Amino acid sequence: MTVAVIQFGGSNCDRDAVRALESLDIDAERVWHEDGLPADTTGVVVPGGFSYGDYLRAGAMAARSPIMDEVRDAAADGTPVLGVCNGAQIGCESGLTEGAFTTNKSARFQCEHVHLRVERADTPWTEHFEEGDVIEIPIAHGEGRFEITEERYDDLVDNDRVLFRYCDADGNVTDDANPNGSTHNVAGILGERESVAVLMPHPERATLPDVGGTDGENILTGFRA
Amino acid sequence: MTAYTATVTVRLKHGVLDPEAETTKQALERLGFELSELRSADRFEIDLEADDAAEAEERAESMAERLLANPTIHDYEVSAAPAAESA
């Protein structure tokens, strides 16, 4: 019974993720990508960082490493998989989720607290929220602008795959509240199954009260389901 | 088998915002250059052995599909020519 937090060369949020999960009494361990998923894996975190130095495109290399085949199989079997930041980029690059995360509209690295509106409350990641709830979680990325073709975006909406959108403190989804130019303020999306989700903001950085804010806690508890 | 160089050019699809190109354009303008638009692209040159140019292109195309380009945001072009003789 353990959540595998996959460590690639250049991952840097792996320890934070383990610590945040353990603070919630969820057993977690770092797993070096070359070692494959442990047999007792009950969940997978693809953590933030700069895997392979963001060479080619953020997440492109890690998405094509052999462990991601195992992650795709696990995801298809219903194992919860959460991709955060670089893990979200890897999730899209590996086909776990639709779309792509690319260069921020500002062309700058942005590290700040943002508000997110919960678009679906019936997933393992959001079951402690109500639809429309506003939560505050930090972002830290240079390539977080969600891009997708209009046609695919319509499919995402029709299939109810949008999990979080950037919004203001009152829950209004506006251009001003969109930190990186993401298409329709999308901050996080679901994969084919509700148990697979990726998001650019960092729930593990909003879990331990000492570092400010605990809104991320209720996302990570998705691994208890 | 002949030595070929396949060239894969990967560029953002029309309409996809390119903040890096915009920043580069602004830097050129600060230097006093006049320009209307600037687009950037990635170009990969791949040396490989193939029976003919068509095979070299086909292999490079598959590299573009599998890794070099992201179909969500990119278009790509592939060409192949006999490799230049090394000195």
UniProtKB/TrEMBL annotation, chain A:
SUPFAM superfamilies: Class I glutamine amidotransferase-like. One of its GO terms (biological process) is 'de novo' IMP biosynthetic process. The active site is at 85 (nucleophile), 202, 204. Its EC number is 6.3.5.3, 3.5.1.2. GO terms for molecular function: ATP binding; glutaminase activity; phosphoribosylformylglycinamidine synthase activity. Part of the FGAM synthase complex composed of 1 PurL, 1 PurQ and 2 PurS subunits. Part of the phosphoribosylformylglycinamidine synthase complex involved in the purines biosynthetic pathway. Catalyzes the ATP-dependent conversion of formylglycinamide ribonucleotide (FGAR) and glutamine to yield formylglycinamidine ribonucleotide (FGAM) and glutamate. The FGAM synthase complex is composed of three subunits. PurQ produces an ammonia molecule by converting glutamine to glutamate. PurL transfers the ammonia molecule to FGAR to form FGAM in an ATP-dependent manner. This is Phosphoribosylformylglycinamidine synthase subunit PurQ.
TrEMBL record, chain B:
It comes from the Archaea. GO terms for cellular component: cytoplasm. Gene3D superfamilies: Phosphoribosylformylglycinamidine synthase subunit PurS. It is found in: Cytoplasm. The keyword Kinase does not apply. Transmembrane segments: none annotated. Its EC number is 6.3.5.3. Its main location: cytoplasm. Part of the FGAM synthase complex composed of 1 PurL, 1 PurQ and 2 PurS subunits. Part of the phosphoribosylformylglycinamidine synthase complex involved in the purines biosynthetic pathway. Catalyzes the ATP-dependent conversion of formylglycinamide ribonucleotide (FGAR) and glutamine to yield formylglycinamidine ribonucleotide (FGAM) and glutamate. The FGAM synthase complex is composed of three subunits. PurQ produces an ammonia molecule by converting glutamine to glutamate. PurL transfers the ammonia molecule to FGAR to form FGAM in an ATP-dependent manner. This is Phosphoribosylformylglycinamidine synthase subunit PurS. The gene is purS.
